[in-house]
Amino acid sequence: MKTAYVFPGQGSQFKGMGLDLYQSSDSAKALFEKANEILGFEITKIMFEGTDEELKQTNVTQPAIFIHSVILAKITPDFAPNMVAGHSLGEFSALVAAGALSFEDGLSLVAKRAAAMQKACEIRPSTMAAILGLADNVIEEICAGISDEIVVPANYNCPGQVVISGTIEGVERANELLKAAGAKRALVLPVGGAFHSPLMEPAREELAAAINAAQFEQPICPVYQNVNAKPATEVAVIKENLISQLTAPVRWTQSVEQMVADGAEIFIESGPGKVLQGLVKKIASNVELKSI
């Protein structure tokens, strides 16, 4: 039976995350302390004791989820994936768990990514919205029809659940049209900007330089990347896809479908929460679901 390990993205954080690992494992504790050193502040203090509001700050959220997800994988004695994938930010966790990046380089890239995304959010007011109960192609057509504003599908999370991203005006207009077309919900999300849209271009350019400068290795198994939902093992391909990720949609539905087509029968979530298990269940109801 083939096992796929999957790694969550932003939004799965919770107060106290990682404290049990820190207290129960010396190797986990060492990695947490190394993370504090790399970041230049005590992220462990915020993870273990911080408020929900503090954990929501992009410069905290992204590294915190990455740290939690990667440490879980690293202290799992029988960690032997046949394939890995991560949702948005989770792709960095997946690459480190699969040996394509060191923990240090992965965390440095995630911190730079968070800072670059925050800066891009401040350039132009923008937002995201979850669209429930509408076919992908209908969402794509309606977004494409709004030509004077930016609004695009950003996350294909599971059948009937797509997140759109763009300018505030573009998203508001799309929401009205999508509800008129039969969407059950069109819910604006409490996020700081239009992730996975052309509005992230300044962040993409900034992150590209950091990714190209980082040391990548061939992973121990294929990494199914967000941009095209295809397995990658070549370093050049992995880097190119990772750079494209910030302005391209997260094809999570398609990634899970492809992993199942390639033989995945067990999906194990490594990280805080169980968001991905819920999505995988809606995409492939016959697979086994677990978490570390």
Structure report:
This protein has about 290 residues and is of the alpha/beta class. A six-stranded mixed beta sheet has the order 8-7-2-1-9-10, with helices on both faces. A four-stranded antiparallel beta sheet has the order 4-5-3-6. A hairpin with a 6-residue loop joins β7 and β8. α5 packs parallel to α6. The two termini are about 20 Å apart. The model has no long low-confidence stretch (mean pLDDT about 95).
Task: Write a concise keyword list for the protein shown above.
alpha/beta; 292 residues; 6-stranded mixed sheet; 10 strands; 4-stranded antiparallel sheet
Q: Within the largest sheet, what's the order of strands?
A: 8-7-2-1-9-10
Rough outline: globular
Strand content: 15-25%
Question: Based on DSSP secondary structure assignment, what is the total number of beta strands?
Answer: 10
Computed CA radius of gyration, to the nearest angstrom: 18 Å
Number of helices: 13
Helix and strand composition category: alpha/beta
Summarize the structure.
The protein is an alpha/beta fold and 292 residues long. The protein contains 13 helices and 10 strands. Helix 5 packs parallel to helix 6 and helix 5 packs antiparallel against helix 7.
Write the layout of secondary structure elements.
Layout: E1 2-7, H1 19-24, H2 26-39, H3 43-49, H4 52-55, H5 58-74, E2 83-86, H6 90-97, H7 103-123, E3 126-132, H8 136-144, E4 151-158, E5 161-167, H9 168-180, E6 185-188, H10 201-213, E7 223-224, E8 231-232, H11 235-244, H12 252-261, E9 264-269, H13 275-283, E10 288-291
Parallel strand pairs: 1-2, 1-9, 2-7, 9-10
Antiparallel strand pairs: 3-5, 3-6, 4-5, 7-8
